[in-house]
Design goal:
single chain; 3-stranded mixed sheet; GMP Synthetase, Chain A, domain 3; 163 residues
Length: 163
């Protein structure tokens, strides 16, 4: 580990992560702008919501680190479900729960309440995958985490636009 500072400050676990190219912005269609036409939520819309979340350790987005990809987002608008699998940059990433919590909070703040969300680690990509997924799936733990003012501040930093 080397010194450095991301959102949480402190030491970096992955000092030299691979950086991926951002995908292009999705063009808005006339149908999407028409308020009279029902607009279902799809995987690209969810990806657009989470792609710019800041990594807690690096001055990069989750998309730039390939932590989130559109292919790992599943949506069923009729069933009101969203599933997002995310891949930490290293198998022992201690920030995995914070990253998952940031994704979950972004979705909670952005989507209609009818949606049920499943935010989880991509299978086989993290040493503590089961424990992290269990925490992220536990509504009471998530609510308690968001009552912690310091943790909420860190999540909000991950969700804020970088200048």
């Amino acid at each position: 580990m080397v010194g450095g500072g991301g959102v949480g400050g402190g030491l970096l676990e992955n000092a030299n992560p691979l950086i991926y190219q951002r995908s292009g912005e999705r063009p808005v269609t006339a149908g999407e702008e028409d308020e009279q036409v029902p607009d279902s939520i799809d995987a690209r819309e969810i990806f657009d919501l989470i792609r710019s979340i800041n990594d807690p350790e690096h001055p990069l987005t989750l998309e730039e680190l390939n932590v989130v990809e559109q292919v790992r987002v599943q949506v069923s608008d009729p069933e009101s479900t969203v599933a997002v699998a995310f891949t930490p940059t290293i198998p022992h990433c201690s920030m995995a729960t914070l990253i998952g919590l940031s994704i979950k909070v972004k979705l909670l703040r952005s989507l209609p309440q009818r949606f049920k969300m499943d935010v989880h680690i991509t299978p086989g990509t993290h040493a503590s995958e089961h424990a992290v997924n269990k925490q992220l799936a536990d509504k009471e733990r998530v609510a308690a985490a968001l009552e912690n003012t310091h943790l909420l501040e860190v999540v909000n930093q991950c969700l804020s636009a970088r200048s």
